[in-house]
Amino acid sequence: MLKKPPHPYERLNIMQKQKIIAFLFSVLLAACASGQQKPPPDLVKTEWLLEDLGGKGVLDRAQATLAFPAPNKVAGKGSCNRFFGSMEINGESIKFSKLGSTRMACLSPALSNQEMNYLKALECAEKIVVDGPYLLIYSKWLEKPLRFTQITQTGKP
Q: How far apart are CA 137 and CA 154, in angstroms?
């Protein structure tokens, strides 16, 4: 009986096979990522007013805000206190980090609770979408997104 010659892949050692598999996997990941991610929205020098905290609304006159004063920087008002920090946007994914805030006492427990929930939602943020006049930030911590409307857009045409 004639023996079939080995397939070229069968002649490779384990290291060579692993390198080929790793290369093919990286090509596949790059192809998937390039087809799905949208370019990040240009938010620098914009400021937004929080209108809905994950489907729970917001307290009147609390004026919780979110501003993007410079690339990779974030600031705003939590409800009682100012906050600031870093952020990174990659496609539709967003991550806030190194958030800090002032420590003034809120006038009511409800206002304090809203601020705590707002900042926690930002810390757990994972997706950002500009949908018409709204900025939506999806958080792992909430079922529905944070919804903002734009207040200012300084330095842009």
A: 21
